[in-house]
Description:
This protein is an alpha/beta fold. It has eleven helices and 13 strands. Helix 1 (25-36) packs parallel to helix 2 (58-64), helix 1 crosses helix 8 (236-248) and helix 7 (207-216) packs across helix 11 (316-327). 49% of the residues are buried.
Amino acid sequence: MGRGRSQVPEEREGRPILVTGGAGFIGSHLVKALLTSGHSVRVLDDFSTGNTANLSGVEALAAAHNVRFQLLHGDVRDDFRVRDAVSSCRAVAHLAAVASVARSVEDPVGANSVTHGGTVNVVRRAVEAEVPRVVLASSCAVYGDPQSLPVAETAALCPMSPYAQAKLAAEEVCSSAAHAGQATAVALRFFNVYGPRQDPSSEYSGVISRFMHAASHGDGVTIYGDGLQTRDFVYVDDVVDAVLRALFRPLTGYSLMNVGSGVESSLLDLLSRIQELCGRTVARDRRPAREGDIRHSRADAGRAAWVLGWRPHSSLADGLAATWSWHTTAANQPPAGA
Ligand code: NAD
Ligand code: UD2
């Protein structure tokens, strides 16, 4: 690894980017964007929530762009698998995690072992293999309920769920490696990401995918709490753009950045937009607020603009329309109630 190196060394130019969790929602968009921009890609995924359908067409994409695509089935906690995965890589985008607050509350030990333990494993093996850069998918969940909005990276941290605690610990793994001069590391605190291929099939799935899945099947939705909680919904293409910049921009040491739209929307607002898209009223069932849920969220993404030259381009209206179109395309419809 390049101690303090800011640029990817030339001899690594043709080497693959490792995407852990590359068969998942965000990971699969990242993989396709990397291939399209002429980078070879290696994916490490255990398919616990990801699936091969998300990666359909990647071989053809790789061939069209004269680059390589390699899929490794394995767990980020499996030391031998991770050693193989990081070998000769140009950079690592580490996305594999138990990506759900609710699931982490149900199984805190398991969630921590993947999200924190897996990061320990990936980062230490990346450092050992002299991989010059690691980008971590972190989360705005580390802030908990911010005292004021928009929330900047300097805000107090108050992780309210095992998921948030594990993400904070994963960030510290990256910052320690960077501060020890072992790697350039970038932690991106994604806000609430949405878009095509977000899996709607579990009760733990992201709220936009849940609501759109229900609306497109003529079903009702469940609202936890009063529906007035707000989130900063950021479209997946914008998030991928931030990850690409974090992978390839000249940087040194450790960088930490919010990746959010800067716009705050309540669940009730979201539901009314979805009703407009589907042209009917969607029935709603109210349940108590979930444990570990935060109340309000909105990003100050000024640092990502400054450091990465990043800004979101998709409005909520455009992003929802594209996501709705994906949900209502027959080939993309998981069976109702799945
Ligand atoms: P996802 O569940 O679709 O993707 C996670 C991927 O990691 C899946 O393909 C899954 O099979 C894989 N994975 C899980 N455990 C693994 C393990 N032990 N070994 C190997 N692979 C494993 O979720 P996503 O929404 O695409 O999230 C990607 C990353 O972004 C996660 O780290 C998540 O915490 C983070 N993030 C997501 C959001 C969001 O709103 N979706 C927001 C903030 C941060
Ligand atoms: C958190 C993080 C997000 C990401 C994600 C991974 C915050 C602000 N965001 O998202 O960055 O890391 O965790 O899981 O911490 N809800 C319903 N009905 C449903 C589904 C959800 O009402 O069918 C509610 C849910 O209780 C919450 C809101 O919708 O209040 C958003 O939930 P989510 O699961 O989409 O995402 P969230 O905010 O937990």
